[in-house]
Amino acid sequence: MVRNLNHDTFLVIRYVKRRLTVMIDIDGKHEWRDCIDVPGVRLPRGYYFGTSSVTGDLSDNHDIISLKLYQLTVERTPEEEKRDREVFLPVVDNLKLPGLEAPLEPMSGLALFLIVFFSLVALVFAIVIGIIVYNKWQEQSRKHFY
């Protein structure tokens, strides 16, 4: 949507009271459209803001012309201030990350019984097949001596 346009495109990233909002202006009309709005974002303090225009595709080229950064002054209660200082890793409330699934439920008694039963049947079947193959091999080896 932002390729080969005759005007600049703009992006606004706002983080206020644990809410991350991203808005875009790709039409050049100074009308902002919502891109994402994520509540419950907890970011740690004391880090730096960085940008990159690298897309990973050699045929694409983006230029970051300017950045304007503002620190918003928002009144906070002492409880909110303490809670924000305790954040050490970036976290989003109610967001499931890949690889962090809930623990599996234990198997029911019937499922466990069926697994054990069919495992034993397969083991007995393998032993019977092994005995038959061994007997055939013994019988073939005796015939070679005659």
From TrEMBL:
Domain L-type lectin-like intervals: 1-72
What domain of life?
A: Eukaryota
Is DNA repair given among the entry's keywords? no
Q: Which residues cross the membrane?
A: 110-134
* Record-linked Gene3D superfamilies: 2.60.120.200
What topology does it adopt in the membrane? Single-pass type I membrane protein
> InterPro entries from the xrefs?
ConA-like_dom_sf, Intracellular_Lectin-GPT, Lectin_leg
Spell out the subcellular localization from the entry. Answer: Membrane
Q: Name one GO biological process term.
A: endoplasmic reticulum to Golgi vesicle-mediated transport
Cellular component GO terms held in the UniProt record = COPII-coated ER to Golgi transport vesicle; endoplasmic reticulum membrane; endoplasmic reticulum-Golgi intermediate compartment; Golgi membrane
Question: What protein name does the entry list?
Answer: LMA2L protein
